[in-house]
Amino acid sequence: MEQWQRKRDILAMLSTQEFVSGEALAERLGISRAAISKHIDVLETLGLSIYSVKGRGYKLATPVSLIDEQRLKQGIERRCFYFDDIPSTNAFMLSHSEELESGDVCIAEHQSAGRGRRGRRWVSPYGSHLYFSLFWRLTDGMSKAMGLSLVVGCSLAKVLDELGVEGIGLKWPNDVYLDGRKLAGILVEMKGQADSNCELIIGIGVNMAMPEAQGETIDQPWADLQAHSMPDKTEFAVLLQRQLQADLSLFEREGLGAFVERWQVSDLFIGKPVNLMMADRVETGICRGIDEQGALLLELAGGVKSFVGGEISLRPA
After folding, report:
1. Does the annotation list 33 as a binding residue?
2. What global pTM score does this model have?
3. Does residue 122 sit in the same domain as residue 22?
4. Of 181, 182, 191, 242, which residue is the catalytic one?
5. Is 8 known as a binding-site position?
6. Which SUPFAM superfamilies match (predicted)?
7. 182 and 233 both lie in a single domain
8. Residue 17: CB partners within 8 Å, gap ≥ 6?
9. What CATH number is given to the structural domain containing 44?
10. Which residues of the chain have a pLDDT value below 50?
11. 195 secondary structure, DSSP code
12. Residues 133 and 38 occupy one common structural domain
């Protein structure tokens, strides 16, 4: 913990976006120049871009927003687990699922093994984004979780709107876009039976300030919040937990039907021609939103047809 606090103190001093000399950092923190250099090296291995110029010192290439742990835990009524570094927030929650209650969350500043859908790596540089997992227990089983990722997308879109972020759109079934590029992803993992208790881990990753070098490793158009109304990350996390808790409770009572209209308002492709690509074929038609089971509605030559399945991907025609 002491070593992480040193790193956080260094980042706080570099947050002015001005160069700070190694001597000034060492004097302020009461450690050697060599120790400062080692901490900088570790931060760079965790994905941060830090400029180092001889005679001038160090400067962050992109801003870093760290969670205020005290404010976080004061703002969230449920249990909150917070880490500087962890393999995966979802994996942590899955391994402790029997001990958790609905609404408990895990948040980290860095993930060494962050995952997206289909096992894809989620780029997780330290302090740059929000890595967030929430636990929820459904008493009616997995069959009642149909369309859950759409509910989560609606929750995230509402919180971002409340924080003043404009240009948010939802892409079926689990992506949040900003100005036509991917801003956030949702990964829902389940444990349990089809007709009894079902434990859900809802993982959310939101790009806040992508370091340039990390952005170059991503193979699709992405967005972050740097050029927009950058929210305070602690406030963002607290509001997201509260919104998810309210929306998931509503989902349990009324099902996905309570969210269809909210989804349609933010649907990125509704009314537009799309290609729906599946393992063995491609369907081309007009996107007509979703139904109350969470299926995608596609208008084809023979009428409107619904599609649902984990391997379906959606692209504009």
Report:
1. no
2. 0.90
3. no
4. 182
5. no
6. C-terminal domain of transcriptional repressors, Class II aaRS and biotin synthetases, Winged helix' DNA-binding domain
7. yes
8. 59, 60, 63
9. 1.10.10.10
10. none
11. S
12. no
Could you give the strand order of the β-sheet that contains 198-207, starting from the edge strand earlier in sequence? Answer: 80-83, 105-108, 129-138, 198-207, 181-192, 175-178, 168-171
Residue entry with tokens 């240009």:
167
* CATH label of the domain that carries residue 173: 3.30.930.10
Of 65, 54, 78, 177, nearest to 127 by C-alpha is 65
Question: Could you tell me if 128 and 253 lie in one domain?
Answer: yes
Structural contact between residues 200 and 190, judged by C-beta atoms closer than 8 angstroms: yes
Q: What is the distance between the terminal CA atoms of the chain, rounded to a whole angstrom?
A: 50
Known binding residue 117? Answer is yes
Token pair 């979802």 is found at: 90
The pair of three-digit structure tokens given for residue 163, joined into one six-digit string: 């924080």
- Beta strand 273-277 with 282-290 is antiparallel
Segments forming the whole domain that contains residue 297: 269-316
Burial class (CB in 10 A: 0-12, 13-18, 19+), 7: buried
Distance CA 194, CA 270 (A): 31
8 catalytic? Reply is no
